[in-house]
Structures are given as structure tokens and as C-alpha cells.
Amino acid sequence: MKVPLSSLIERMPADTREQVDKARQRWNQPVREVLRQETGLRLNRPEPGRGPGAQQTLQDVAGIPIRVEPGMPEKLRTVELDEAMALRVIVGRRRATLEMLRGSAAETQRLVTELKRAGHAERLLEGREVHLNGAEAVADRLLRELDGPDPVKEILAVNADVLGVYTYHKPKQGTLLGGDMPTGVRIELYWGVIGLVAELLGRSVESLTVVVLAHELAHAYTHLACDIDGHRWASPAFTQSEHELIEGLAQFYTARVCDRLREQFPDVLQTYTLLLGKQPGAYKTHVEWVEKSQPEEVRFAMIETRRRGIGRLEEFEAALVDLRGRLREGQAT
After folding, report:
1. In angstroms, rounded to a whole number, what is the distance separating the alpha carbons of residues 19 and 4?
2. Whether 178 contacts 73, CB under 8 Å
3. 3-class DSSP state of 267
4. With contact defined as beta carbons under 8 Å apart, do 61 and 175 qualify?
């Protein structure tokens, strides 16, 4: 029998929404500031007719609101799990509790042994220590159930943003910022999905919310924000660009955000790394860039790609290799 994933997400406690929203409020501006610094892009551009010093903010015109939503993205709504996988979701939500129970039962057993040697066990425990073995055995058996296929990988296998989304509508007519400026721009954070995946990863809801927030805002910046010459990534070209490139750029800047925030919030980098290990290939495109390229090299390659139009991963990586050679040669001289 198949179990709808939606029925498991609906079991998340209602206070998860408040946790996600508090994380959004607390970390929204710090994440944006890191993205501004890392991308060199700005959500503003010179306003026509008002001189080079005047600025018109994209947020004022198009808006990039961040909403905390109870539902889930379209691609998850039809996902069903087999009974074994659904069971692992139910048990996996309590992984941390079960690990604590198993560890504390074993530690308490050692205390009982010490009490028996000291002659105090009978008076203090009155035979109740016999239940410790059972508690440890229950926790161990349930944890062994989690050794099967990973439900997080199953959820993420849809190969799309499912914890949150960056979304927009193509304009039917020109806007104040140009004919290709999208409308209805927004970010949605799905608190039920975030809460479920956070529990399955054994990470805090706050740390996973920050990772998701950074990823979706990175999409917004690479698409909408202007470079020093006022160029954005034209919406038709951005929409048609290769999935691996779009996600690779978002993931690269998510990694940069998490690394830059590690002193303020060390859990964020750990959560990003753990989640990355369970994500499909398109979300790992950037790993080689992180290992071999400097942030400035990625930034220049991204800006070049945006100006060319429809982004192709092969062309971006060729530009990245070329820039890497030229910039490092210049540094050497």
C-alpha cells in the first residue's frame, strides 16, 4: 500500500510554522547582505531621468516577499511512499530521541552496576533496573529500521526545489523596469516540508530554514539583481537556462552564505553539508567550483553568462576555466 507524502507532512506540529517564520525574520537581512557582497549584484539600478546617483529598488517595484506557507510544491503533491519508506519517515522523525534513549539506557546500566558494587542498588532501585535492557532494545531495534533506503533522498529525488521555491510570472506587458521584468516575484518557504526534513536529518528547524532561505534568495539575486552596468539576467533567458546551471549557482552562493555565517551560527554549515549529501546531481554541480575556483572567478563567469542570454552549464564552466587562468596569471605577474 502506498502512503501519500502529504499525509506525513500534515502530522508536523503546528509550532513548526512559528520556528520557520522566526528564522526567516532573524536571518533574512544577514543572508541578503552576504549575497550582495558575494555576487557583487544589487537589487537596484539607476532610475531613468534622475541621474546616475538616483536608485530605483527592485523590491519597491516588483517586490520579493518571503512567505511561510503550510502546503508543499506541486512536484511533491503526488509523491507516494511505500509502507516501508513511510515507516522510516515515522521512525526517523524521532531519531534523536531514540539515540538519546539508547545511549542513556546504556549509561544508566553502568550506574546500576556501580550502585550494586556499593550495596545501594536494592534500596534505591527495588528491582526496576530490569526494564533498562528492554528500553535499550526497543530503541536499538527502531534505529536499525533506519538502515534502509533514506526517505530524505526519496523526497529530494524529484530534482526540484521542494523545501521552498523562488517563483515569478512572465509579464504580459512591459513594466517600469523593462519588458522582461517578471511579476508576482516571491519566495515561499514550506514549513511542513522543512520541519519534516529537519527532523529526518536530525537538525534544527532554524538551521534548515536558513539554508533554504539562502538558496531561494540566491535564485532571486542571480536572476533579478543588477551588475555594475545595470544588467540583469533577462527573464526569458533565465527561465530557459539549464537546470543544472541555475541550481549550481544557487547552491554555490548558498555554500558561501553558510560559510560566512558559520561563526554566528555554526549549525547552518553543518546542515547545508548534510543536506547536500542527500540531494540529486543538479544540486551538486557547484561542488567542483567550490574546490577549484575562487569566489571572484565564479562571480565573473556568472556575470558573463547572464549577459550572453540562455545559460548553458558547459559554456559557464568553459568561461570559469578561462577566467581562472587569466585572473591567476594576472595575480602571478
Report:
1. 25
2. no
3. helix
4. yes
User: What's the pTM?
Assistant: 0.86
Query: Which one, of 194, 166, 180, lies nearest residue 72 by Cα?
Result: 194
pLDDT of residue 170: 75
pLDDT digits (tens, 9 = 90+) for 80-127: 999 999 999 999 998 889 999 999 999 998 998 888 888 887 888 888
Class of residue 217 by CB neighbours under 10 A (exposed 0-12, middle 13-18, buried 19+): buried
Tell which residue, 251, 296, 253, has the closest CA to residue 275: 251
As a whole number of angstroms, the distance between CA 207 and CA 20 comes to: 9
Q: What mean pLDDT value characterizes the chain?
A: 88
* C-alpha closest to that of 256 among 221, 228, 225, 303: 221
Q: Tell me how far the alpha carbon of residue 296 is from its chain's centroid.
A: 23
Q: What is the maximum alpha-carbon separation in the chain?
A: 90
Q: What's the grid cell of residue 73?
A: 510544491
